[in-house]
GDP-L-fucose synthase (Pseudomonas endophytica), 325 residues
Amino acid sequence: MARELNQKVFVAGHRGMVGSAIVRRLQALGYTRIVTAGRDTLNLLDQQAVQAFFHEQKFDQVYLAAAKVGGIQANNAYPADFIYENLMIQANIIQAAHLNDVDKLLFLGSSCIYPKLADQPMREEALLTGTLEPTNEPYAIAKIAGIKLCESYNRQHGRDYRSVMPTNLYGPHDNYHPENSHVIPALLRRFHEAVQRGDDELVIWGTGTPMREFLHVDDMAAASVHVMELDDAIYQANTQPMLSHINVGTGIDCTIGELAKTIASVTGFSGKLTFDSSKPDGAPRKLMDVSRLKALGWQASINLEDGLRDAYDWYVNNVQQARTH
């Protein structure tokens, strides 16, 4: 698809880490009609409000980055909230887009859609081939439903609704809450506070041996716009009607121990790293197969150390506004 900078684009979830990165990317490319709406002006759980908003605005494109997200503890504590709110947000936006003749939509999912014991690296074909990770199953099922919503509107109504599934994301506007954050923001915060206190040791849960893949959110935004802008013929040649989602990642992973050492360097922590093997490790490895995305002409460009420095700089400069409570 040729880039049309005067298209009217709605980014749902613009205050989140991914949505804000997509807005930055679109602005950098020269898009001039980017529309956003915070919770104070639009409740995405309200079907009638979403319908009225779409009817009034007449969008050309929609990026569906809005979601209720959280770490393992939050997913365990509030499973009903996670499945209900995500299902409603997705259904309301996709249906409103269709009814108001929006032909281009990009849905952002999560790598947790894949089975807990999926072969590594995880290919798109692994979807629905096994049991999900129990701790975030409600969230994962909602995200799978989002993929199938897009596929179903494409099949029945001829829409062009696409889906991208990112690996573990990090970067500016991340969540640094002590209980609900993911591994990178959690470690960045802990190392930062350890340096401030002058600690000479930092204890990390688990053995440090599990391997994880991490993608800077600016790379995720670049990939999202790239997939949205792909010519139909190229996109269709690399996807299938019933397998339309595309993995987004670096294709490179590292151990949690290696990640911790890099974060220690980035934050200036010079003390001892101790791994508490009595605490759970989780899955031994989670790596995305990104060959389909590479065939579509995109690959990540921000290496982990540079990305961590960028994320840490943002945290230090925005610690008062960062989601830390």
The first helix runs from residue 17 to 29. The first strand starts at residue 8 and ends at 12. DSSP finds eleven helices and twelve strands in the chain.
